[in-house]
Amino acid sequence: MIGIWRSSYRYQPVARDDGELAAELHEIAAAEATAGYRTAWAYLRQDGLVVNHKRVQRVWKEEGLTQPVRKGRKRATGGSVPLQATHVNESSEKGGQRRRSRGC
Fold first, then answer.
1. Do residues 37 and 62 lie in contact, with contact meaning Cβ atoms separated by under 8 Å?
2. From the centroid of its chain, how far is CA 19?
């Protein structure tokens, strides 16, 4: 009666050897400089190795193979300039699509 479940007390964790997977991931990272863990997982699947994507992500991160995150481009905000119609039949609304009636 120590306050834990019997199944938790008897649980024996299984140690996994990720050395082979890490070696494969290093080969993929050396061959493709821009590859991430998703690309590496796809290559492993193509080679016939069935492995969970979460395991690939964990080993990829542990091995230090992550790439720096790319910054998004800056977009101008706050400038609300009304669009000008350039042709006679063009509307000045954004999108330029007119509504049609179905002719029911």
1. no
2. 24
Q: Write down the pLDDT at residue 74.
A: 85
Give φ, ψ of 7 to 5 degrees: -65, -35
In terms of phi and psi (left: phi > 0; alpha: psi -120 to 50; beta: otherwise), the region of 99 is: beta
CA 68 from chain centre, in angstroms, equals 13
Looking only at Cα atoms, what is the longest distance across the chain?
Answer: 86
**Residue 47 backbone dihedrals phi, psi, to 5 degrees:** -80, -5
When pLDDT is cut at 50, 70 and 90, the band that residue 97 belongs to is: low
pLDDT tens string 42-86 = 999 999 999 999 999 999 999 999 888 888 888 877 667 666 777
DSSP 98: P
**Dihedral class, residue 96 (left if φ above 0, else alpha if ψ from -120 to 50, else beta):** left
